[in-house]
Design a protein that fits this description.
Layout: E1 21-26, H1 27-42, E2 45-49, H2 56-67, E3 73-77, H3 81-93, E4 98-102, H4 104-109, H5 111-119, E5 125-130, E6 153-156, H6 160-177, E7 181-186, E8 194-199, H7 202-209, H8 233-246, H9 248-263, E9 271-274, E10 281-286, H10 289-302, E11 307-312, E12 314-316, H11 320-330, E13 336-342, H12 350-362, E14 373-379, H13 387-401, E15 414-415, H14 437-440, E16 443-450, H15 455-467, E17 472-479, E18 487-495, E19 508-513, H16 521-525, E20 527-536, H17 541-548, E21 555-559, H18 561-569, H19 575-585, H20 592-602, H21 608-621, E22 626-627
Parallel strand pairs: 2-3, 2-4, 4-5, 5-7, 6-7, 10-11, 10-13, 13-14, 14-15, 16-19, 19-20, 20-21
Antiparallel strand pairs: 1-8, 6-12, 9-11, 16-18, 17-18, 21-22
Helix pairs in contact: 1-2, 1-6, 1-7, 3-5, 6-9, 11-12, 15-19, 15-20, 18-21, 19-21, 20-21
């Protein structure tokens, strides 16, 4: 049973302990590193895919490695998602280690073959970068789509480190259990955001995953397999699957323990707990929001409110008995449970439903002890609840705990809104003591751009540079319609301590606008006193201040980065010019020397004139800058 108390994932939530080379990776690339090591262990394999955002980057990196010989697998670029999964089924039956990546409507398009692979016990590993559908949305909401019929093992990564660790473990789990195994991560919040990850050495990883041992070797015994079975054989096969399904939790636990021995990272195999041993109010969540909840719990604990967290990892099979045992035995003071469901459906959320059923089924063992009251809080499709919104959720849990036990109370669905329009209660952190440094000392910079201008790349490059030093950085992109010219945003967060939260509602040290028309009042209002508004424009700082009514407390700088870029490169790529200006304004965060090294590395393989053009750009940037207090 997972131990209660602060999570063993790290004494400082954010950067995992253990062995491995520290790399700054987006979540998709963390997954790709695990797949590469698994294929090396097998001496070859098969990767099938049809590109779909936000999972495409996984295959981009894998195809690059396959092309240059760093990954000994055969890559198949299919004409459709259905065809990609069908090819993976053929490869798995053919006796090779098999991997596929998808998301959202791609996952739904291949669903016929996904269930077929699961029910036929094929050990395929799938990376699912969760994304919403209908209407299309690039943000998370996939994890529960395969829950109705238990035909796939499902693991859920809370952060980048878990995306890597669980993907490596997934090959062992799939091949030991002989079952399709899916590793979920949140679209964009982890798939495209940047953070530090410890990647264990290839020899340790390949030794852990091991060679591929096919259950049926077609080269030794000829078999024929089709998509049809007889009415008599069907229930027999499903009965065998029932028995195999029951053994999966033990396989996951054993795999987790073995991975802990080689990596030094041994969080709970099924779920992790945080400050749960004396909690009166318990949050339950799967996925990226757990990081924000941990930071929020630190804030609430500083105010004397006993809040705890269960962050799930194994979603299918659902660890109902283990969760109920933990709640009743290890957390007997819990009064109210708040379940956070990453969905906006009009029916009870999937995690809420699963946990309610488990409390009803297994909670009877603790009769006459009453189960805790429960709330179902909803977020999804791009929502990233701020601390004030989480404070509103906790407020409702506390309010519910104080109601008379004999009073019948309707506990409605609480939809959380990223803009604070849902159950938000303003949270004033001004006089709160003991706040985590990632909240009090974090430097937040916001990049406002349009597709093709490099705003997201600028934030990612800044994060890459900072993570190479003595600070921690996290980069979170945000996209609109995925078209050139559509609004794109990038947020870079820098702290002296590891960063857990994906919710950054604090004041910005700087807002960097790649076009003046992107600057809105809400952006200016978020800039702290003494902070900077930097705009790519030919207008003067005084004109920008007047047009956008910028208060005197904010310093305004302008530079015609577009003109400089067109002159040096013949293209409108203002990102490195603006980063050079940041290096001038905030040398404690980034130096010109670091920026030069990053540009050279980032453009490696490009024509020398492109590299030299970008290097000249950053030299010219400071001399072209206009603004206050340039010294």
């Amino acid at each position: 049973m997972p131990a209660a108390g602060p999570t063993r994932f790290s004494p400082r939530p954010g950067l995992a302990l253990g062995t491995g080379q520290i790399m700054t990776l987006v979540g998709n690339h963390a997954v790709a590193h695990a797949v590469r090591q698994a294929m090396i262990a097998a001496g070859g394999g098969f990767t099938g895919a049809y590109p779909i955002t936000p999972a495409t980057e996984i295959l981009h990196l894998i195809r690059y490695w396959e092309a240059n010989g760093r990954m000994p697998s055969l890559g198949y670029n299919a004409p459709s998602e259905h065809d990609a999964m069908s090819a993976c089924i053929g490869a798995s039956f053919g006796g090779v280690r098999t991997f596929i990546a998808t998301a959202s409507v791609g996952f739904m398009h291949m669903m016929e073959m996904v269930e077929w692979a699961g029910q036929n016990r094929l050990p395929i590993v799938m990376a699912l970068s969760n994304r919403a559908n209908a209407p299309l949305n690039i943000w998370h909401e996939d994890v529960d789509r395969a829950r109705a019929r238990d035909f796939a093992v499902e693991l859920v990564a809370e952060n980048h480190q878990q995306a890597y660790d669980l993907s490596l473990q997934a090959f062992r789990i799939a091949e030991r259990a002989q079952w399709l195994t899916i590793v979920n991560q949140a679209g964009f919040f982890t798939s495209h955001s940047s953070a530090q990850v410890r990647v264990i050495p290839d020899d340790a990883a390949t030794g852990f995953v091991g060679e591929f041992q096919p259950l049926l070797d077609p080269f030794k015994k000829s078999i024929s397999k089709g998509g049809l079975t007889s009415p008599a054989a069907y229930p027999l096969q499903r009965a065998q699957n029932f028995a195999g399904w029951a053994a999966i939790p033990r396989t996951i636990q054993e795999t987790h323990d073995e991975f802990g021995k080689i990596s030094g990272r041994a969080p709970g195999a099924f779920f992790n707990t945080y400050h749960a041993e004396d909690a009166e109010y318990l949050f339950v969540n799967y996925g990226f929001l757990s990081g924000t909840l941990r930071t929020f719990i630190d804030i609430m604990r500083g105010q004397g409110i006993k809040v705890g967290l269960i962050s799930g990892t194994m979603y299918r099979p659902f660890p109902g008995r283990e969760l109920v045992n933990a709640i009743y035995q290890q957390m007997p003071q819990v009064k109210v449970v708040g379940v956070f469901d990453g969905t906006l459906d009009p029916v009870d959320g999937p995690i809420y439903t699963d946990l309610s059923a488990a409390l009803n089924r297994f909670g009877r063992e603790y009769f006459p002890q009453l189960p805790p009251k429960m709330f179902d809080f909803r977020f999804g499709g791009g929502q990233n609840p701020y601390f004030s919104v989480l404070n509103g959720a906790l407020y409702r849990m506390i309010e519910e705990a104080n109601r008379p036990e004999n009073r019948a109370v309707e506990r409605p669905i609480q939809q959380l809104d990223r803009n604070g329009e849902g159950p938000a209660v303003e949270l004033d952190l001004t006089d709160v003591e003991g706040l985590p440094p990632s909240v009090t000392d974090a430097v937040i910079l916001e990049f406002l751009g349009r597709g093709g201008l490099g705003a997201v790349s600028a934030a990612a490059n800044l994060v890459e540079i900072v993570n190479g030093g003595d600070r921690f950085a996290q980069g979170i992109p945000q996209f609109g319609s995925e078209k050139t010219g559509s609004p794109t945003f990038g947020t870079a967060v820098i702290s002296k301590e590891p960063i857990t939260s994906y919710s950054h509602e604090g004041k910005r040290q700087a807002v960097i606008a790649f076009r003046p028309d992107l600057v809105e009042a809400r952006h200016i209002n978020r800039i702290k006193d003494g902070g900077v508004l930097l705009v790519n424009t030919s207008l003067s700082p005084a004109e920008i201040r007047r047009q956008h009514q910028v208060p005197d407390s904010v310093r305004v700088f302008t530079i015609d980065a577009t003109a400089l870029s067109l002159k040096a490169l013949g293209k409108d790529f203002p990102n490195n010019v603006l980063l050079a200006v940041l290096a001038h304004l905030y040398p404690e965060l980034i130096s010109l020397e670091q920026l030069r090294a990053r540009i050279t590395e980032d453009l490696r393989g490009k024509e020398n004139k492109i590299i030299q053009g970008n290097l000249r750009l950053i030299e010219e940037a400071v001399s072209s800058l206009q603004g206050e207090n340039l010294a």
